Amino acid sequence: MKTVAMRVAAYCIVAILAFGDVFRPISLMTFWSDRLGIPHWRMLVFTSAVVATTTFFLPPRTLSALSYKIPIFIALTMVASIFSVGYFAEVVRQEKLAQFRPDEYIDLSFFKSIHEAPREFQFYLHTAALKNCVPYGWSYRTMSFYNLPPNVAVNVVGKWAKRCGIHRS
């Protein structure tokens, strides 16, 4: 029973710190898996799990019981997955941002996004960009910028809305 509690605790601690709750990692891996459009992200998660299996090769005197190895494996898999996928998503987003060449932008990290989004009835802006007084938002699903509707733009990029004359429709 103690070993099961340690496994659950390892998962819950990483999930709450990185994602804000315990269900979001499972949701993002299953029925929300289409919400991340970077190529090969599942391969990064698999590779992270393979790398984390090294905990099972540690000598018994280093980690004396299997009961400690499995929680460490769970935590390492999650942390390595979060950082590898997050780093790759950041690199792709920064490349697209440089190609898009906005006049101004508000940049929020992937790690902030997985902690904040998705929220059920609330719009979350991952990154905002302004180009020729047209506001854009970043979509991790399509890995591209999209036009922000005026009603949304007024709420999330208020300073740009005033300067560029963006009003609710």
Uncertain segments are none
| Count, helices | 7
Helix and strand content put the structural class at alpha+beta
What is the overall shape? elongated
How many strands appear in the DSSP assignment? 4
Overview of this structure, please?
It is a single chain. The protein has a 4-stranded antiparallel beta sheet. It folds into 2 domains: 2-96, no CATH class; 101-164, no CATH class. It has helices at 2-19, 24-29, 41-52, 66-100, 110-116, 150-156, 158-164, and strands spanning 104-107, 127-131, 134-139, 144-147. The chain has 7 helices and 4 strands, in the order ααααβαβββαα. Helix 6 packs across helix 7 (158-164). The termini are far apart. The radius of gyration is 20 Å and the shape is elongated. With 169 residues, it is an alpha+beta fold.
Short description:
With 169 residues, the protein is of the alpha+beta class. 54% of the residues lie in helices and 11% in strands.
Give the SSE map.
Elements: H1 2-19, H2 24-29, H3 41-52, H4 66-100, E1 104-107, H5 110-116, E2 127-131, E3 134-139, E4 144-147, H6 150-156, H7 158-164
Antiparallel strand pairs: 1-2, 2-3, 3-4
Helix pairs in contact: 1-4, 3-4, 6-7
Key traits:
single chain; alpha+beta; 169 residues; elongated; 4-stranded antiparallel sheet
